């Protein structure tokens, strides 16, 4: 099944004025610029809505040109949000292929290749692999983005991500801590009278109230069973498989090759420990990559520093 996605459109193009007249002239819309935003593990397409909305609403125009119409695509990855029914195997490769399969539809609907594709954390690895597949295919000219943005995502392999402390897990600054979160989700009771009951159980397991409430967003009633108990609406085993494959997969060589196909931007939170210093140095030394660090942000860069991140996007996505 196709992934579920939303398209956000920007403000209406300004109505041009005929020379020497106070009456509006005919609408002459500029080209559509569009970008794809991809969330991380246990996230949904809503995570990046605020950043995406700010970008599409900041229409720009150059001397003698009409405004570029902007659109942002927000997608739920497989087993996340409303994209719950993709068939196995649940691997990084399958998640990337879901994006590859979606791009022709978006290209047709929005009239061209994406200006940018952005992926956060697990989603960063997904879009790196997806873009690499597109860039090395016969459809590269129609589907390859001009820019690829990887936000606080480790592209190297890390097959043994265990050992994070509970304090680190509560800060949610390291994607490896998601392994413990997934284990704890399997220990929840099958049903809940209220969503807050799930929050209480997660807090008792040692998670912060903030993280517990975020996780409990996945605790819902079945839409076809009004009045029934709340249940965790996540395929925890499937998501665990996705995460395991994330840690096993090394995409540093793919990134090196991608620098020849599109502009590659690597953005890190200065307070995050998701990407090691050694990896940052290796990726930065590729020469054709553009690196950015938002010093006052942790792993959740778009939450910790939305203004700084938004300014970077506005600066580069023209």
Structure description:
By secondary structure, the chain is an alpha/beta fold. The protein has two domains: about 35-55 and about 70-155 and about 250-315, 3-Layer(aba) Sandwich (Rossmann fold); about 165-240, no CATH class. It is built from 13 helices and nine strands. α3 crosses α10, α6 runs antiparallel to α9 (about 235-250) and α7 packs across α8 (about 210-215). The longest helix has 19 residues, at about 90-110. The protein is globular, with a radius of gyration of 21 Å. Mean pLDDT is about 85; it is low at about 10-30 and about 160-175.
Characterize this entry briefly:
The protein is an alpha/beta fold. Helices cover 38% and strands 14% of the residues.
Distance between the termini: 33 Å
What is the CATH architecture annotation of the largest domain?
3-Layer(aba) Sandwich
Sheet with the most strands, sense and barrel status: 7 strands, mixed
Query: CATH superfamily name of the largest domain?
Result: Alpha/Beta hydrolase fold, catalytic domain
% residues in beta strands: 5-15%
CATH fold name of the largest domain: Rossmann fold
Secondary-structure-derived class: alpha/beta
How many helical stretches?
13
Number of domains: 2
Shape: globular
Average pLDDT metric: 85
Strand and helix order: EEHEHEHHEHHHHEEHHEHEHH
Computed CA radius of gyration, to the nearest angstrom: 21 Å
Widest sheet: strand ordering: 1-3-2-4-5-8-9
- Total beta strands: 9
Proportion of helical residues: 25-40%
């Amino acid at each position: 099944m196709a992934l579920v996605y939303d398209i956000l459109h920007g403000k209406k193009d300004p109505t041009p004025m005929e020379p020497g007249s106070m009456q509006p002239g005919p609408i002459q819309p500029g080209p559509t610029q569009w970008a794809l935003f991809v969330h991380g593990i246990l996230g949904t397409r809503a995570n990046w809505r605020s950043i995406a909305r700010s970008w599409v609403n900041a229409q720009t125009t150059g001397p003698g040109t009409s405004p570029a119409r902007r659109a942002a695509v927000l997608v739920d990855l497989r087993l996340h949000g409303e994209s719950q029914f993709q068939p196995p195997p649940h691997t990084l490769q399958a998640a990337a292929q879901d994006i590859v399969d979606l791009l022709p539809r978006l290209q047709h609907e929005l009239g061209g290749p994406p200006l940018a594709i952005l992926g956060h954390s697990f989603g960063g690895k997904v879009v790196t692999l997806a873009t690499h597949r597109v860039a090395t295919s016969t459809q590269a000219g129609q589907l390859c983005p001009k820019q690829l943005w990887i936000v606080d995502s480790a592209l190297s392999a890390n097959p043994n991500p265990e050992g994070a402390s509970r304090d680190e897990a509560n800060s949610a600054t390291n994607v490896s801590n998601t392994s413990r979160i997934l284990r704890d989700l399997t220990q929840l009771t099958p049903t809940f009278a209220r969503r807050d009951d799930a929050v209480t159980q997660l807090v008792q397991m040692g998670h912060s109230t903030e993280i517990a409430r975020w996780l409990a967003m996945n605790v819902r009633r079945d839409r076809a069973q009004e009045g029934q108990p709340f249940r965790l609406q996540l395929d925890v085993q499937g998501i665990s498989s996705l995460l395991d494959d994330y840690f096993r997969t090394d995409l540093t060589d793919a990134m090196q090759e991608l620098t020849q196909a599109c502009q590659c931007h690597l953005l890190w939170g200065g307070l995050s420990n998701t990407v090691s210093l050694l990896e940052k140095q290796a990726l930065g030394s590729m020469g054709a990559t553009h690196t950015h660090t938002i010093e006052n942000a942790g792993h959740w860069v778009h939450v910790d520093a939305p203004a700084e991140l938004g300014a970077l996007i506005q600066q580069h996505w023209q």
